[in-house]
Amino acid sequence: MRRALALLGAVLLLCVPATQAWAASYTYWSFWQLDAESGAWGYATQGPGTARVSGGDVVGFHFTTSESATAPPQAPRGTTEHAGICPDAPDGVAVVIDFGTADGAPAARTACAAGAAGSTAAAALAEVAEPLRYGSDGLLCGISDYPATGCGEPVAAAEEEDEAADDGASFLPTIATLSAVALLAVAALWHNRRRRRDDASGAA
Predict the structure, then answer these.
(1) Going by DSSP bridges, is the β-strand pair 93-98/58-65 parallel, antiparallel, or unpaired?
(2) pLDDT for 6-39, tens place per residue?
(3) What is d(CA 66, CA 51) in angstroms, rounded to the nearest whole number?
(4) Cα distance between residue 58 and residue 95, in whole Å
(5) Which residues cross the membrane (predicted)?
(6) pLDDT, tens digit, 9 for 90 and up, residues 56-88
(7) Which of 20, 45, 73, 125 is the most buried (most CB within 10 A)?
(8) First and final CA of the chain: distance in angstroms?
(9) If DSSP codes are grouped into helix, strand and coil, which group holds residue 134?
(10) CB 62: neighbour CB atoms within 10 A?
């Protein structure tokens, strides 16, 4: 009987779907700084309101959607060549603005903040892309009125929960079928064991 119960438990464990952790995605303006030596974007460790910029720097802003809490954000698209963005202001700060790929999003653009050297990245951005919109916590919410509303809004959470529920529901027929098979197996083992006991008793 113990063998039968172990078999039933093993089958039922196989029937249980693995739990998936669905992390909500968020849309927000990510802030980047270009490494002059490697020419690669680096996700800023400070906010634009505190990060200081120097002449010749390139900073970027990308309106993006985080895939999960652990997934790295995507860097801004477009040119990063300072000389091409600030041809007449070698000591200016080049600003790259990527509005993302959502329907209705403005085209990505670059601009030169000629007088921003020595100030903050936020000041450089304000010089070329007003109006800016900030949240009460200082989070950058909108650049050039995009988006017009919202700030760090969660998206797709409801859709992901629905998909998870659908996936779980699809397991129900499988669970019912395998449970029935497991119960039949237990009954067969119990019947065979009882028959052996009866045969043993008759032979005695």
Answers:
(1) parallel
(2) 444 444 444 444 334 445 688 999 999 999 999 9
(3) 22
(4) 6
(5) 171-190
(6) 999 999 999 886 656 678 999 999 999 999 999
(7) 125
(8) 23
(9) strand
(10) 23
